Each structure stands twice: as structure tokens, then as C-alpha cells.
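C-alpha cells please, single chain.
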Amino acid sequence: MSVQEIGHIQGELSVRYGQGTCPGAKPRNDDALGFKIPEGAELVTKGVTAVIADGVSAAEAGGEAAQLSVLGFINDYYSTPETWGTKTAGGKVLTAINRWLYSEGRRFGDECKGYLATFSALILKSRTAHLFHIGDTRIYLLRHGNVEQMTHDHASQVSGKASYLSNALGLDLNLRVDYQRISMRPGDVFVLTTDGIHDFISKEAILTAIAEAEGDLDAACQILIAKAAASDSGDNLSCQIVEVENLEREGKVSSYRELERLPFPPDLDPGQVFEGYRIDRLMHASSRSQLYLATDPDTDQQVVLKTPSVNYSDDPAYIDRFLMEEWIGRRLSNPHLINMLRKKSGEPRFLYHVMEFVPGRSLRDWIRCNTRPSVVEVVELIEGIITGLRAMHRRETLHGDL
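Here you go.
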């Protein structure tokens, strides 16, 4: 499977890329590829992402695990708060994906490993390359005519050429992720491969393939696939090539780092305009947060703004949990759960969330007005609550405030 999303690059970070995949000698392709170049400010705050995954052939659902890993990582990474660093965002996303794959794999029984995939992700952000790695997929760096393998295979040698995989997404509840960051240079080329490629060609063959393709990176990927197939590769064949053309200028990088230190908003009054929203009224206030009903003047849509309490402005654990709420909300989608919305401002100046506004009475008010409800009414309400909770549990999320 190949997932591609191409956007017009705004700013000075620019890349070229190519990718290719085929089943090779196998009847089906259990590899998965993903690539995304976001638009606008997200290019700077999140960067460019290339992901490759290889479903473990011994697993009952290896191909599905690879596809879910690629789609899940790209979707969830770009949904993380802009205030999270790349290492934090990537790590939390992979932990969530791993827990879901592990729990799904248990459906096949304790002795069977159902959803397993090896995985490598490359995030190019500003002037830095961030590498996340699990298993035996690989990332190479080509610089000044040299090829260096940047990842370490998570495989243990048994005897001769025999080895077994010691780490994979979905293998264990406690995930071990290799992470490293590399300062990029214009002209750097990153190559991501599955073992059907790199187990059957040399590092030098990568340089040769790129030279033969004369700048066509898709063609270079096809040359690598053909070379591995000609060397009797019996596996699926997949690779990606990403070339760095230009880097973000230093000043722009520094300005976006300020997002990691956003201040708490002040108390908001009705009629006040905050971050492009007009404040209508205070809905609820507690020692931990405030909820404001607000309107987007451009669309007349009413939304709810959640702001953190200044009582916790110096509490890192509270701030981390507040940021986590936004990411969790963006990952969840169910009619019985409130939707977390994108902020109107591309570059927020304060720490807050924007949520869907659902008009109507609260459950507390309904209970006060219905002191002796019928069993049918109660069951209908409880069914909705249970459905929403199950949607959270499927995303490995527990509601701690019921």
C-alpha cells in the first residue's frame, strides 16, 4: 500500500521524494508506505514525514498492522499539539499505536501474535531530521557520496544466517523505540527500505541506483526494487527516497520554538475578542479550568474555549495533561463524544482548546427535572454514555473524570 499526500510547500524547507513498493515473490504485499508534506504553518511546526512499515509475515494480521501503523502515525502525529516537541509527539503516537495493535493481537490468543509490524519514520522539521525506529526496516543517510545506515536492526542472531525479530510494533505492551536527531544539510538524501530490499543489495547499490535514475527519485526506487528482485529476494520490496533541497532559515526556527512556552490566557469577559473568537459568556469555572462559550465572527459558529487555570501555571505535569487532552480529543470521533476543533489562529499566542458546542441541558439538569424517569429513558441515556466510553477505550484512553 502506498499513501501519498502532497502539498504546496510554504516557506524555505523544501524536499523531493520518490517511493515504490511491490509484492515481489509473495502473493500479497504486507508493506506500507506513507508520505506527507503539510501546508502553511504546519510545515514548520510539524515538518515533512516519511513512514515505512513491514508486516511481520509470521503474524496473522501483519499486513493490516503495517497499514494501520503508517496511517495512524501520519494522522495522529499531525493531530498532536503544536506545543509538543517532535520526540514527545512521535513517542506518544507510537505508544498509542503499539497498545492498540497489542490489544488487537490478543484476540488471536496468547500464543499467537496477530498484529505485528516493523516500522521506521523520518520527520524533517526546520533544520533537523528526527528518526523513529522499531524492528528491521532501515533508514540510510547519503551525504557527500557516502552511505551510512542510521538505524540498528532489532534482530538477534541464532546461528549462521538465521535470526529472529526482537522488537516490533504490537509485540509487547512496553514499546522500545530508537530515536535520534540529525542536523540536516542541503543535498542530504534519506533512503527508507524494508528487508526485502536491504537484505539483498549492498549500500553501494543505493548510490548506483540514484545515479542511474538521473534525479528521478521514483525511478531510483524502481531500480532498487529490480536489483533486489534480481538478487533472488523472496520478500515484499519497498523503499522511499527523500532529498533535502533547502532548509528553514534560523530566525524562523527560533520563532516557532516559542510555541513550546505559551502563556496561560487571562480571565475573559463577554464581548472580548480572544484569538479571533468573540467571548459570549463564562459557562463553567473550577479550580482547574474555565469553559467559555464563544462565537467565530467569520462563520457565526458557536464553540467552547477551554482555558487552563492560572493556579497551575508553574506545574509541568498539569500543563502536559492539558496538552494531552487536545491530542486525545482530535483522535476520537464518535457521535457521543465532543469533537476537538482546530484553532482559528494558525499561530496561537496562548494555551487553550477549542471544542464543539452542543446546545441542550446537562445530565445534572435533566436528572433534577426528571426525578422518576422511566427505565426506557435511563437505558437510552446509559447506552449513549457506554458507546462514547467504548470509543475512548478502543483508543486506549480512560476517562478519569466521570
